[in-house]
Amino acid sequence: MEYPNLSFYARTLLIGSIIAPATLVSASIVHSQPNIAGSMRAPSWMHRVADTRHDDAPNFADLAEKVQPAVIGVVSRTAATRKLLPGQPFQFGVPDQRTPNDENEEKMPDSDGSGSAQKPNAREAVAVGSGFFISSDGYAVTNSHVVEHNKTVQIRTNDNKTYQARVVGADSLSDLALLKVDGRTDFSYVKLADQPPRVGEWILTAGSPFGLGGTVTAGIVSAREREIGTGASEGFIQIDAPINTGDSGGPSFNTSGEVIGVNSMIVSPSGGWAGVAFAVPADTAKSVIPQLKDKGSVTRGSMQAEVQSVTPEIADSLGMSNLHGAIVANVRNDGPAAKSGLKSGDVITSVDGQPIKTAGDLTKKIHAMSPGSSIRVAMIRDGQESSLNVTLDRLPDQPESSSRDPG
């Protein structure tokens, strides 16, 4: 689907075979018949909600006014599309690749906001995303997929001023990127939250849907630690606030005005909003952004092994119904795991004495360590407890498999 004069398709997951159209079933209610109306009286809890919802419903006006000055639109000449990983049930959508020399194409704004810049080459795509300042001196966060293959991008602030920004670094695994606008030290900025949100908490999202500029939507945290098989290294925060084309890289705020996540992708059977969106957690950003600022890239530990979470079915097949952990699916030749003696079928239950409940737990633990670190891995092999030491290698920049891979 193409949108005339609209600048960007947010990265979208298409799951046509998984998400079926919702069917609305409506009972006939005849209001002129008292006995029917009486028999269909709403339960008492519904009356309580109806009586109090206007008084108790959150008002986001003050919060929106507080945070919007820190939110930006991001315009890049090109944007990469993420390839489908082997065995991955999801497919990424593509950025808007409308031809910039369309008659209705808006001029790319100059750094002074004059709009006098020349149109990009017709073969180039124009991508519009969102982002937000994290410091007064011009550091800003967005998605990696918004700025890939760009050394500079243009940003537009909430007061409609346009600046050129350097791409300091981008990390495709976490889908985070760091930008820097030089020449000012008085930008409005927001803080990354210190605590993860609880499921059910209210959130406010902000961004530039369809390139329209400052826009906010509201919703709740639907789930945490979502592992969706995209190769990303961290569990996502799932939200139900409407996220649309151009919102990629924008922030999700808690009611205190702190960023709890960086909006990254949506799940949809059609490419439009379907009630499910994913944000990169703030704690992931806190570990990635400092490395991007210091060296332009992220260094992660690696075991060179592929793992998956132990499911109840896997546990039963091993004869251990209460077993939790990460089962080794594959060990790469000559990698740290192979050299240490780790084998396919081993179930890793702890690392350095810290329990491992899922493959995601193991991934986070290993990726947070530096190459060269030595770890003690406790495991179950052939029904017996065992342990061994693994000296970590460096994780390649790009994931090579859809299996959960701690390196």
Describe this structure in words.
- The protein is an alpha+beta fold and 407 residues long.
- The protein contains eight helices and 21 strands.
- It has a six-stranded antiparallel barrel with strand order 8-9-10-13-12-11.
- A hairpin with a 7-residue loop joins strand 8 and strand 9.
- The N terminus is likely disordered.
The residue fraction in helices comes out at: 10-25%
Q: How confident overall, as mean pLDDT?
A: 75
Taken in chain order, the helices and strands follow as EHHHEEEHEEEEEEEEEHEEHEHEEHEEE
Kindly provide the radius of gyration, computed on alpha-carbon positions and rounded to a whole number of angstroms.
24 Å
- Number of discrete helical segments: 8
Biggest sheet, spatial arrangement of strands: 8-9-10-13-12-11
- Structural class of the helix and strand makeup? alpha+beta
Short description:
Helix content is 16%, strand content 29%. The protein is an alpha+beta fold. It is globular, with a radius of gyration of 24 Å.
Q: How does the SSE layout of this entry go?
A:
Elements: E1 12-14, H1 34-39, H2 44-56, H3 61-67, E2 71-76, E3 127-133, E4 139-142, H4 144-147, E5 152-156, E6 162-171, E7 176-180, E8 202-207, E9 215-226, E10 236-239, E11 251-253, E12 259-268, E13 277-281, H5 282-295, E14 301-302, E15 305-309, H6 312-317, E16 326-331, H7 336-340, E17 347-351, E18 354-355, H8 359-367, E19 374-381, E20 384-391, E21 393-394
Parallel strand pairs: 1-12
Antiparallel strand pairs: 2-3, 2-5, 3-4, 4-7, 5-6, 6-7, 8-9, 8-11, 9-10, 10-13, 11-12, 12-13, 14-21, 15-16, 16-17, 17-18, 17-19, 19-20
